[in-house]
Amino acid sequence: MRIIVSGSIAYDRIMDFRGRFKDHIIPTKLHILNVSFYIQQLRQSYGGTAGNIAYNLAGLGEKPILVATHGNDFGEYANWCRKNKIITQYSKKVSNQPTSTVYIITDLDDNQIAGFFPGAMLKSNGRLDAKMLKHSSYAIVSPGNLKDMMEYPKFLKKAQVPFIFDPGQQITSLSKTSLLSGLTLADIFISNDYEYQMVKKKTKLNDRTFLKKAGVIITTKGGHGSVIKTKNNIYKIPAAKPQKIKDPTGAGDAYRAGILKGLAMGLGWEQTGRLAATVAVYAVEKYGTQAHKLSWQKVRKRYRQNFKDTV
Protein backbone atom coordinates (compact mmCIF):
# COMPACT_ATOMS: atom_id res chain seq x y z
CA MET A 1 0.00 0.00 0.00
CA ARG A 2 1.39 3.44 -0.95
CA ILE A 3 1.87 5.83 1.96
CA ILE A 4 3.08 9.42 1.57
CA VAL A 5 5.82 10.37 4.03
CA SER A 6 6.73 14.06 4.05
CA GLY A 7 9.37 15.60 6.29
CA SER A 8 13.14 15.71 6.33
CA ILE A 9 15.94 13.68 4.79
CA ALA A 10 19.22 13.96 6.67
CA TYR A 11 22.59 12.45 7.28
CA ASP A 12 23.03 11.65 10.98
CA ARG A 13 26.50 11.97 12.48
CA ILE A 14 26.24 10.31 15.87
CA MET A 15 29.07 10.67 18.39
CA ASP A 16 29.57 8.79 21.66
CA PHE A 17 30.91 10.54 24.74
CA ARG A 18 31.90 7.93 27.30
CA GLY A 19 31.20 10.18 30.23
CA ARG A 20 28.35 12.27 31.59
CA PHE A 21 27.61 15.83 30.53
CA LYS A 22 26.59 16.75 34.09
CA ASP A 23 30.12 16.03 35.35
CA HIS A 24 31.59 18.71 33.07
CA ILE A 25 29.06 21.53 33.33
CA ILE A 26 29.32 24.08 36.13
CA PRO A 27 25.78 25.34 36.90
CA THR A 28 27.00 28.70 38.21
CA LYS A 29 28.92 29.38 34.99
CA LEU A 30 26.25 28.64 32.40
CA HIS A 31 26.36 32.26 31.19
CA ILE A 32 29.91 31.64 29.93
CA LEU A 33 29.54 27.98 28.98
CA ASN A 34 32.62 26.75 27.12
CA VAL A 35 33.02 22.99 27.12
CA SER A 36 34.45 20.37 24.79
CA PHE A 37 33.81 16.62 24.83
CA TYR A 38 36.33 14.03 23.66
CA ILE A 39 34.52 11.68 21.28
CA GLN A 40 35.58 8.05 21.11
CA GLN A 41 33.31 6.97 18.24
CA LEU A 42 31.71 8.66 15.23
CA ARG A 43 29.14 7.00 12.98
CA GLN A 44 27.39 8.40 9.94
CA SER A 45 23.99 6.99 9.14
CA TYR A 46 20.91 7.80 7.10
CA GLY A 47 18.19 9.71 8.89
CA GLY A 48 15.69 12.55 8.88
CA THR A 49 12.11 12.16 10.08
CA ALA A 50 10.71 11.23 6.68
CA GLY A 51 13.65 9.00 5.83
CA ASN A 52 13.34 7.08 9.10
CA ILE A 53 9.58 6.59 8.88
CA ALA A 54 9.84 5.48 5.25
CA TYR A 55 12.63 3.00 6.08
CA ASN A 56 10.52 1.33 8.76
CA LEU A 57 7.42 1.24 6.55
CA ALA A 58 9.37 -0.45 3.77
CA GLY A 59 10.60 -3.04 6.26
CA LEU A 60 6.98 -3.68 7.23
CA GLY A 61 6.10 -4.45 3.61
CA GLU A 62 4.49 -1.12 2.65
CA LYS A 63 5.40 1.21 -0.26
CA PRO A 64 6.48 4.52 1.27
CA ILE A 65 6.71 7.58 -0.98
CA LEU A 66 9.39 9.93 0.33
CA VAL A 67 8.41 13.59 -0.13
CA ALA A 68 11.23 15.90 0.94
CA THR A 69 14.12 17.97 -0.37
CA HIS A 70 17.66 16.66 -0.63
CA GLY A 71 21.01 18.17 -1.59
CA ASN A 72 23.81 17.63 -4.06
CA ASP A 73 25.30 14.84 -1.92
CA PHE A 74 22.24 12.59 -1.93
CA GLY A 75 23.67 9.85 -4.18
CA GLU A 76 24.70 7.48 -1.39
CA TYR A 77 21.37 7.93 0.41
CA ALA A 78 19.47 7.47 -2.88
CA ASN A 79 21.16 4.11 -3.40
CA TRP A 80 20.15 3.11 0.13
CA CYS A 81 16.53 4.04 -0.61
CA ARG A 82 16.52 1.99 -3.81
CA LYS A 83 17.99 -0.97 -1.97
CA ASN A 84 15.21 -0.73 0.64
CA LYS A 85 12.38 -0.13 -1.87
CA ILE A 86 11.64 3.45 -0.80
CA ILE A 87 10.10 5.56 -3.59
CA THR A 88 12.08 8.82 -4.04
CA GLN A 89 10.85 10.13 -7.40
CA TYR A 90 8.70 12.80 -5.71
CA SER A 91 11.56 14.23 -3.66
CA LYS A 92 13.22 17.39 -4.93
CA LYS A 93 16.94 18.02 -5.44
CA VAL A 94 18.41 21.37 -4.35
CA SER A 95 21.61 21.50 -6.40
CA ASN A 96 23.35 24.34 -4.55
CA GLN A 97 22.92 22.92 -1.03
CA PRO A 98 24.02 19.76 0.80
CA THR A 99 21.47 17.40 2.31
CA SER A 100 20.40 18.29 5.87
CA THR A 101 22.82 17.06 8.52
CA VAL A 102 22.41 16.53 12.26
CA TYR A 103 25.31 16.21 14.67
CA ILE A 104 24.41 14.34 17.87
CA ILE A 105 26.57 13.73 20.94
CA THR A 106 25.21 11.10 23.34
CA ASP A 107 26.56 10.54 26.87
CA LEU A 108 26.41 7.46 29.11
CA ASP A 109 23.00 8.50 30.49
CA ASP A 110 21.56 8.76 26.94
CA ASN A 111 21.41 12.56 27.26
CA GLN A 112 21.93 14.22 23.90
CA ILE A 113 23.29 17.50 22.56
CA ALA A 114 22.46 18.06 18.90
CA GLY A 115 23.17 20.59 16.20
CA PHE A 116 21.08 20.61 13.01
CA PHE A 117 22.10 22.14 9.68
CA PRO A 118 18.98 22.31 7.45
CA GLY A 119 20.75 22.71 4.09
CA ALA A 120 18.36 21.58 1.33
CA MET A 121 15.44 21.46 3.77
CA LEU A 122 15.27 25.26 3.61
CA LYS A 123 13.71 24.86 0.17
CA SER A 124 10.13 23.73 -0.29
CA ASN A 125 9.46 20.48 -2.12
CA GLY A 126 6.49 22.16 -3.81
CA ARG A 127 2.95 21.01 -4.57
CA LEU A 128 1.98 17.40 -4.03
CA ASP A 129 1.60 15.46 -7.27
CA ALA A 130 -2.05 14.78 -8.15
CA LYS A 131 -1.32 11.25 -9.43
CA MET A 132 0.58 10.41 -6.26
CA LEU A 133 -2.31 11.63 -4.11
CA LYS A 134 -4.82 9.61 -6.12
CA HIS A 135 -2.95 6.35 -5.57
CA SER A 136 -2.02 6.81 -1.88
CA SER A 137 -4.01 5.46 1.04
CA TYR A 138 -2.45 7.35 3.97
CA ALA A 139 0.07 10.10 4.67
CA ILE A 140 2.07 11.70 7.44
CA VAL A 141 3.23 15.31 7.62
CA SER A 142 6.31 15.14 9.83
CA PRO A 143 8.93 17.81 10.72
CA GLY A 144 10.52 19.24 7.59
CA ASN A 145 10.34 22.38 5.47
CA LEU A 146 7.98 24.84 7.18
CA LYS A 147 6.13 25.88 4.03
CA ASP A 148 5.45 22.26 3.15
CA MET A 149 4.24 21.55 6.69
CA MET A 150 1.76 24.42 6.40
CA GLU A 151 0.55 23.61 2.86
CA TYR A 152 0.47 19.79 2.73
CA PRO A 153 -2.41 19.38 5.22
CA LYS A 154 -4.57 21.44 2.84
CA PHE A 155 -3.60 19.35 -0.20
CA LEU A 156 -4.18 16.07 1.62
CA LYS A 157 -7.55 17.14 3.02
CA LYS A 158 -8.72 18.29 -0.41
CA ALA A 159 -7.57 15.00 -1.97
CA GLN A 160 -9.32 13.07 0.83
CA VAL A 161 -6.13 11.28 1.84
CA PRO A 162 -6.31 10.59 5.61
CA PHE A 163 -3.15 11.79 7.34
CA ILE A 164 -1.22 12.22 10.57
CA PHE A 165 0.04 15.67 11.59
CA ASP A 166 3.35 15.43 13.45
CA PRO A 167 4.92 18.88 14.03
CA GLY A 168 7.66 17.58 16.35
CA GLN A 169 10.88 19.59 16.26
CA GLN A 170 9.21 22.37 14.28
CA ILE A 171 6.67 23.26 16.98
CA THR A 172 8.71 26.26 18.06
CA SER A 173 8.96 27.51 14.45
CA LEU A 174 5.33 27.01 13.40
CA SER A 175 2.88 29.77 14.24
CA LYS A 176 -0.17 29.24 16.41
CA THR A 177 -2.34 29.55 13.29
CA SER A 178 -0.33 26.90 11.40
CA LEU A 179 -0.46 24.47 14.32
CA LEU A 180 -4.22 24.92 14.69
CA SER A 181 -4.74 24.47 10.96
CA GLY A 182 -2.61 21.32 10.82
CA LEU A 183 -4.24 19.55 13.75
CA THR A 184 -7.75 20.59 12.67
CA LEU A 185 -7.33 19.32 9.09
CA ALA A 186 -5.57 16.11 10.17
CA ASP A 187 -7.24 12.84 11.08
CA ILE A 188 -4.63 12.14 13.78
CA PHE A 189 -2.24 14.30 15.82
CA ILE A 190 0.91 12.66 17.17
CA SER A 191 3.68 13.89 19.48
CA ASN A 192 5.61 12.93 22.59
CA ASP A 193 4.26 14.09 25.95
CA TYR A 194 6.53 17.15 26.19
CA GLU A 195 5.65 18.28 22.67
CA TYR A 196 1.96 17.85 23.42
CA GLN A 197 2.25 20.27 26.33
CA MET A 198 4.15 22.72 24.10
CA VAL A 199 1.41 22.67 21.46
CA LYS A 200 -1.33 23.09 24.08
CA LYS A 201 0.49 26.09 25.50
CA LYS A 202 1.07 27.67 22.11
CA THR A 203 -2.48 27.10 20.81
CA LYS A 204 -4.13 27.77 24.20
CA LEU A 205 -6.15 24.55 23.90
CA ASN A 206 -6.98 22.27 26.82
CA ASP A 207 -7.30 18.49 26.55
CA ARG A 208 -10.99 18.61 25.70
CA THR A 209 -10.82 21.30 23.02
CA PHE A 210 -7.65 19.75 21.57
CA LEU A 211 -9.38 16.39 21.10
CA LYS A 212 -12.41 18.09 19.60
CA LYS A 213 -10.21 19.61 16.89
CA ALA A 214 -7.82 16.71 16.27
CA GLY A 215 -10.18 13.75 16.47
CA VAL A 216 -7.44 11.33 17.57
CA ILE A 217 -4.45 12.22 19.75
CA ILE A 218 -1.48 9.89 20.07
CA THR A 219 1.06 10.72 22.78
CA THR A 220 4.27 8.75 23.19
CA LYS A 221 5.99 8.47 26.58
CA GLY A 222 9.22 6.64 25.85
CA GLY A 223 9.72 3.62 28.07
CA HIS A 224 6.35 4.29 29.71
CA GLY A 225 4.45 3.43 26.56
CA SER A 226 1.90 5.64 24.81
CA VAL A 227 -1.68 6.85 25.02
CA ILE A 228 -4.20 6.98 22.17
CA LYS A 229 -7.23 9.21 22.77
CA THR A 230 -10.28 9.13 20.54
CA LYS A 231 -13.60 10.88 21.05
CA ASN A 232 -15.00 7.74 22.66
CA ASN A 233 -12.07 5.93 24.30
CA ILE A 234 -8.63 6.19 25.84
CA TYR A 235 -6.19 3.37 25.07
CA LYS A 236 -3.16 3.00 27.32
CA ILE A 237 -0.51 1.20 25.29
CA PRO A 238 2.37 -0.46 27.19
CA ALA A 239 5.90 -0.34 25.81
CA ALA A 240 7.27 -3.48 24.19
CA LYS A 241 10.40 -4.95 25.78
CA PRO A 242 13.70 -4.35 23.98
CA GLN A 243 16.33 -7.07 24.13
CA LYS A 244 18.87 -4.32 24.87
CA ILE A 245 18.97 -0.53 24.68
CA LYS A 246 21.78 0.98 22.63
CA ASP A 247 20.45 4.24 21.17
CA PRO A 248 17.03 5.88 21.70
CA THR A 249 17.34 7.99 18.55
CA GLY A 250 14.73 7.06 15.93
CA ALA A 251 12.36 5.12 18.17
CA GLY A 252 9.62 7.74 17.72
CA ASP A 253 9.88 7.55 13.93
CA ALA A 254 9.71 3.75 14.05
CA TYR A 255 6.61 4.04 16.26
CA ARG A 256 4.97 6.30 13.68
CA ALA A 257 5.64 3.75 10.95
CA GLY A 258 3.93 1.15 13.13
CA ILE A 259 0.88 3.40 13.49
CA LEU A 260 0.68 3.84 9.71
CA LYS A 261 1.04 0.09 9.18
CA GLY A 262 -1.82 -0.56 11.60
CA LEU A 263 -4.00 2.00 9.81
CA ALA A 264 -3.20 0.44 6.43
CA MET A 265 -4.25 -2.96 7.79
CA GLY A 266 -7.48 -1.61 9.26
CA LEU A 267 -6.57 -2.67 12.81
CA GLY A 268 -8.30 -1.30 15.90
CA TRP A 269 -6.54 1.35 17.96
CA GLU A 270 -5.33 -0.98 20.69
CA GLN A 271 -3.71 -3.35 18.22
CA THR A 272 -2.33 -0.46 16.17
CA GLY A 273 -0.71 1.08 19.25
CA ARG A 274 0.81 -2.22 20.32
CA LEU A 275 2.13 -2.83 16.82
CA ALA A 276 3.75 0.63 16.87
CA ALA A 277 5.32 -0.12 20.26
CA THR A 278 6.74 -3.35 18.84
CA VAL A 279 8.31 -1.61 15.83
CA ALA A 280 9.83 1.07 18.08
CA VAL A 281 11.98 -1.38 20.07
CA TYR A 282 13.89 -2.41 16.96
CA ALA A 283 15.24 1.14 16.65
CA VAL A 284 16.54 1.39 20.24
CA GLU A 285 18.44 -1.88 19.93
CA LYS A 286 20.86 -0.49 17.32
CA TYR A 287 23.03 2.58 16.98
CA GLY A 288 21.57 4.86 14.31
CA THR A 289 18.03 5.33 13.08
CA GLN A 290 18.14 2.97 10.09
CA ALA A 291 20.60 0.34 11.32
CA HIS A 292 18.00 -2.22 12.41
CA LYS A 293 16.47 -4.82 10.10
CA LEU A 294 12.72 -5.31 9.90
CA SER A 295 10.52 -7.94 8.34
CA TRP A 296 6.78 -8.28 8.76
CA GLN A 297 7.19 -11.91 9.80
CA LYS A 298 9.64 -11.06 12.60
CA VAL A 299 7.56 -8.11 13.82
CA ARG A 300 4.44 -10.27 14.03
CA LYS A 301 6.35 -12.85 16.07
CA ARG A 302 7.69 -10.20 18.41
CA TYR A 303 4.24 -8.65 18.76
CA ARG A 304 2.88 -12.04 19.80
CA GLN A 305 5.69 -12.53 22.34
CA ASN A 306 5.06 -9.13 23.95
CA PHE A 307 1.28 -8.92 23.92
CA LYS A 308 0.04 -12.54 23.67
CA ASP A 309 -1.98 -11.53 20.64
CA THR A 310 -1.69 -11.77 16.84
CA VAL A 311 -1.88 -9.26 13.98
Describe the structure.
This protein has a single domain, classed as UDP-N-acetylmuramoyl-L-alanine:D-glutamate ligase (3-Layer(aba) Sandwich). The two termini are 17 Å apart. It has ten helices and 14 strands. With 311 residues, it is an alpha/beta fold. A hairpin with a 5-residue loop joins strand 12 and strand 13.
Quickly count the domains.
1
SS strand fraction: 15-25%
Oligomer description: single chain
Classification by helices and strands: alpha/beta
Mean pLDDT across all residues, rounded?
Answer: 95
Low-confidence stretches: none
Total of DSSP H or I helical runs spanning 4+ residues: 10
The tally of beta strands, per DSSP, is 14
Shape: globular
How far is it from the N-terminal to the C-terminal residue, by CA? 17 Å
Layout of secondary structure:
Elements: E1 2-6, E2 10-16, E3 41-47, H1 49-59, E4 63-67, E5 69-70, H2 75-83, E6 92-93, E7 100-106, E8 112-117, H3 130-134, E9 138-141, H4 146-158, E10 163-165, H5 176-185, E11 188-192, H6 193-203, H7 207-214, E12 217-220, E13 226-229, E14 234-237, H8 251-265, H9 269-284, H10 296-307
Parallel strand pairs: 1-4, 1-9, 2-7, 5-6, 9-10, 10-11, 11-12
Antiparallel strand pairs: 2-3, 7-8, 12-13, 13-14
Helix pairs in contact: 1-8, 4-5, 8-9, 9-10
